[in-house]
Amino acid sequence: MPTTMKVDYINAFIGATQNVFTSMLRSQVTLGQVSVKTSHVTAYDISGIIGLSGDAIGCVVVSFPMDTALAAYKAFAGEEVDPMDPNFLDAIGEVTNMIAGNAKAALEGMSISIGLPTTIMGRQHCVSAPQNVPFIVVPCHCELGNFAIEVAFRCVKD
Amino acid sequence: MMKVLLVDDSKVMRQIQRRSLEGFGFTDIVEAGDGVEGLQQMAGSPKPDIVILDWNMPRLDGLSTLRKIRETDKKTIVIMCTTEAEKPRFVEAVKAGVTNYIVKPFTPSVLQEKLDETLTRMGLSMPTAQ
């Protein structure tokens, strides 16, 4: 599996995450140590996933533990929610959508399409990347709790 | 009182937009979960005066919805509210007849500014907030 990714690519997703959390969730994000993903299992139990195509292939996963996801929902929607309410995963998907969209805009000169978000809630679920696509994990922290951004990204021209 | 149509496949996003609009004084607000439902709402009476329209939606996306609206209606205010932030996408929307454009994520004050700017340009004004 490839183990390197251009810093501009991962920075686009980090910047997008910080922008979305600051604007919509009113929460500043700090980053942990970036690393290569070595397992298909996502960092936490609730994930929003968006596929990427066009000049780049891959996906972005925004992964939350339950307490952070519930806090994020409350910050986003202004009210509490039951995790079984469809609006809960809808919000996770929308946050993921905004992060992917913002990152796409930051990757200047690249024509990338993003899919509609998919959301998964379940322990030890797996998300794998297309073959030969580097997959990077960025641990994140904010006032709402810990979460992670996982980015699989390969520019087709690289 | 102006009627606002919110078209977005995210119910939570529509909820957030609704809450902001109610804070600005709008009271007649209807919703649609995709472009097909949006066009159904546009065929209703009274017709919405303002449409806040997402781009990436299932069944019928925002750009296609905008084009359909503009086939018969050049007057309704349509504000695209979307993650599509690149210039070519903006140009596509302008060519299709969008009135204004907001990039997600946005704060309530950005939504208010864009609405105010749009309405002022059309010779209209924001409702008085309650």
Ordered list of secondary-structure elements with their pairings:
The complex is a heterodimer of chains A (about 160) and B (about 130).
Chain A lengths: L6 H18 L5 E2 L3 E2 L9 E9 L1 E9 L1 H12 L8 H21 L5 E3 L3 E4 L13 E8 L2 E11 L3
Antiparallel strand pairs in A: 1-7, 2-7, 3-4, 3-5, 3-6, 4-8, 7-8
Helix pairs in contact in A: 1-3
Chain B lengths: L2 E5 L3 H14 L3 E5 L2 H8 L7 E4 L8 H11 L4 E6 L4 H10 L3 E4 L4 H14 L9
Parallel strand pairs in B: 1-2, 1-3, 3-4, 4-5
What does this structure look like?
The complex is a heterodimer of chains A (158) and B (130). Chain A has 158 residues and is α+β, with helices and mostly antiparallel strands. Chain A has a single domain, classed as CheC-like (Chemotaxis protein chec, 3-Layer(aba) Sandwich), CATH 3.40.1550. In chain A, 32% of the residues lie in helices and 30% in strands. Chain A has three helices and eight strands, in the order H-E-E-E-E-H-H-E-E-E-E. In chain A, strands 1, 2, 3, 4, 5, 6, 7 and 8 form an eight-stranded antiparallel beta sheet that branches. Chain A is globular and about 45 Å long. Chain A starts with 6 loop residues before the first helix and ends with a strand. Chain B has 130 residues and is an alpha/beta fold. Chain B has one domain: Response regulator (Rossmann fold), CATH 3.40.50. Chain B is built from five helices and five strands. Chain B has a five-stranded parallel beta sheet with strand order 2-1-3-4-5, sandwiched between helices. In chain B, strand 1, helix 1 and strand 2 form a beta-alpha-beta unit. The radius of gyration of chain B is 13 Å and the shape is globular. Chain B starts with a strand and ends in a 9-residue tail after the last helix. The relative contact order of chain B is 0.17. At the A-B interface, helix 1, helix 2 and helix 3 of A face helix 1 of B.
